[in-house]
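Hello again,

I reread your note about wanting to compare the complex against the isolated chains. To keep things tidy I'm splitting this into two emails, and this first one only covers the full assembly. Below are the input lines as submitted, including protein chains and any nucleic acid or small-molecule components. They are followed by the predicted structure of everything together. The single-chain runs will come separately.
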Amino acid sequence: MSDVALDPVVDSTPRRPRLFRNPWRKPWGLLLVTLGYLLWSLIPVVIAVVFSFNAGRSRSTWQGFSLRWWTGEPFDALFTDPSLRAAMFQTFRLSIITVLIAVPLGTAFAIGIDRWHGRPARGANFMMLLSFVVPEMILGVSLFLMFTQLIDNLIPLGTTSQILGLATFQMSYSVVIVRARMLSIGPEYEEAALDLGARPGQSLRRVLLPLLSPAILASVAVVFADSVDNFVIVRYLSGTADSEPLSVKIYSAARSSPTPAVNAAATVMLVATITVVLVGYLLYRRFSKGQEPADVGGFAQV
Amino acid sequence: MAGRHPMENRWSRRQFIGRAAGGAIAVPSLAAILAACAKPGTTESGGGSAAAVGLARPDNPVELPLNGDPIAASTPIEEGATLQVYNWDAYMYKKVLKAFEEEYGVTIEWTTFNNMEEGIQKLVSGQIQPDVFFPTTDYIARLVESDLIQPLNLELVPNLASNVWQSFSDPGPFYDLGARYTVPYTIYTTGVAYRRDRVDDADASAQGYDLLWNPDYTGEIAYYDSYRDAIGMALVRNGVMDPNTGDPASITAAKDSILEIINDLDGQLRINGTFAKLPEGEFTVSQSWSGDIVGAKWYLPKGTGEDVLGYWYPEGEPGLIGNDTIVIPTTAQSPRLAHEFLNFFLDEQWGYTNFADWNGYQPPFTTIDPDSLIADGVVAPQLNKAVVTEEMFTTGLVQSQLAPEVDQLWLDAWSEIQAGG
Amino acid sequence: MASAEATAEPQGGKRSREDQAAGRGGAWFPRWYWPTFTLPGTLWLVLLFILPFYTVLSVAFGTVEPLFRTPLPVYQPWYWSFGTFDTTLEKFYVSPAIYQEPLIRTFAYVFAASAICLVVGYAVAYYTARYAGRFRVPILLMLVAPFFISYLMRIYAWQSLLQPGGYVDDIWGIFAEPVNWLSGKPVTVILGLVYGYIPFMILPLYGSLDRIEQSMLEAGRDLGASPFHTFRRVTLPLSKPAILAGLVIVSLPMFGDYYTNDLLGSQNTSMLGNLINLAVFQPGQGQEAGSLTIVLMLIVVIPMGYYLRETRRAAERA
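Full-complex prediction:
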């Protein structure tokens, strides 16, 4: 959208303060919609967390504060029910391994596709973008049928197939993020390095990868958060109990007999994801310092 | 070779896979093609052994063929094993599982399915290879025929003979004479649960099945989301006293009755209507397995007495009745330990704990006496109809295996229900 | 998600870069050098994205084993039979057309939910980009916060809020007769869908609105345009690509959604995704699951193709 940019002089005309004279005057309606939306979107999250401390079994009627569903119940609290703990670990295991596979593959793909032109490259890029937009349901059912039918349990449903499925779905995210960054850096830095006598491997390691690091970090955070959130793929590809991640447990519980222990588990996941994203953001700021203005907005966009 | 489909007549996927291994897209081997040349449909009607001996019915009990021998009684118990248990959600008391783990020094992994079809589907596909599985009786013959479950060594399950109603071991249940493959897990009737604070007992008895079709309870009606149970009760309610009927008109009428619940009465099809939502007050009436209403007390909010729970089951005419079973799949990694597990749940004490302290589903133990259940507070007095007795099985209506073409009728009706009509 | 669009917007000017790649770049790198980078990802997708879909075709056009009637896929296209697929298709339009209603519902819900996403999302994005001032960062954080807790968990929380006796009931009850929100109310399902997917609309819109220079708007006003006019003539056209991208990005997954309805709706709000999900686990319905998946694919192929074409066009324009 850089073509939209006008002469920056216009930007500093004295008229500018007019917009700030009374910023609250006009957009009352917009403000209301925004506040309403934020409330609407956040209240369920707050409710989910708060009710993990409910003294009663209900997840809709507050019956007092208690740690019953965290530690108290002998078999059904978060820390006493091995299946809930296992589900949390499974969620983390899947997400971390998915990051380790999808991000390197996606980064390499993005670098290659940015420099490689021609018909096969367009085909590969098309396939990648297709995997980016295809509804998860289609991929989930297809993978389920492939693992159960085509290769007939060669790879049993469970952790391995879940990771394969998640990595397939998530790879395109890191491609898209890294590719965007590739486009904005352009080939000049690398060419300069090559002009100065660097070998291709060196220019990749010393120049390109450091320049890409903010995008790689962003894709780590996005792939991680989205894998934690994933439900459709991991459910179709889950096998025995130990391979059911938390989202699947929540779904089963919501349809049978949920207890606030499920809320407790989700709370732990919330804290964990926020931690990962926050660390990612801080590192992102650090790495991207001096390269381009990086604000939360830029981070949020990816 | 016109119309030959390479896999048309294969019922054993394992055989086919064995041949095609390594190249799934390869043209099937000669043997597969020859097998496929058999006229399509010859093995389909009724399905193999079932076709030979007829579908198991209470008046047509079957003795299942033995797939090989049971494990030897001298087999050592697998030490430190992980026992894979595949069961419905919330259908076993974790305390009992823990006791088993401690007694044998093993780990139990418990995987759940949401309905029988999903459970069977994952088992058949080989995706789940449990040591212990809890099927409904209508699947037993097919599980045996496809060699998915193994014969039991009853010497290793002495509790079957000593604690369980004799009819389950000698002559054995109609679906498995001689208890070659199965032991019973729980027994239950299917009736209607209601809130006694909103419907009084006399009124409930007068209404019977029509409780579920009463517009007074619009928006407060729950119905099971499992096709055999759902359509089965609608059939009986419509006066068709055969929950295995193949009559298209009856099935269509039953389907319309269920759609009436969904569309006109704002009812909901869900598994947790009785045991979780009725006690919480969300529903006034719900289709109910007897075990669900007995277990519902655990879900009552604080301050709500157990006397709000009511259960109706027909008197003087046959009602729906059934039992679930425990089996050991062929693929079990720890078959000996699995036998111990079966025996453990048929143990007088642990089986009773599982029932009384958690799931509400009664095991068919000779030691369980309806009066003492009420006296001990396991079953609330007004829920006395939810206690199952051996006599009820003699007249009860049992859901059993359907012939494939009949099953298809049921499933088509079910698809239509799921699509919201 | 906004960056899907960004992918397609090379800032450097494509022609000159291609010249470089072909000219000087070619001297540094052997022909196979860059393709090698894409090879692992490409192979991965062929094996785990293209091949699975071929399996769906093989299942849909295959047969079933007679006992449990689980599907038996047929991998050789010359053996494919289209009987089950035809039967499935007929359920959409041949009386009694039992799948017609779910199909219509799917389109109606997706349309309604996407429209709400757009209107609400645009307002929120517009406010955040233009008026939020120093609250911009906190608001942005709150906008992405729902991503950090599982979607299932949030829908589950809604379930508890909406159930009879829940807080929504308490508040609603002050003004009107209590409503059983979870008994298959289209409005519940549509709002559930909006809730689940609207962040994917807001973020690209925000990204796009944020990039519109303040000076452009001022230029408009200086030339005498009313605020509304400025919005219509400047802001809206400039954000059009983001609107279209957002609409596609929210509506595509909605077409395949089944869990929102599973937790918040009932059979009389069931959508195409529900039919697929049920068929996957119903014995004898495996082929139908495959057939319905193909139907879903056919439905989304148009918006998907549109999106991919626009992405490429945007790349060429830049």
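For quick reference: Chain A has two domains: 2-53, 74-301.

B.
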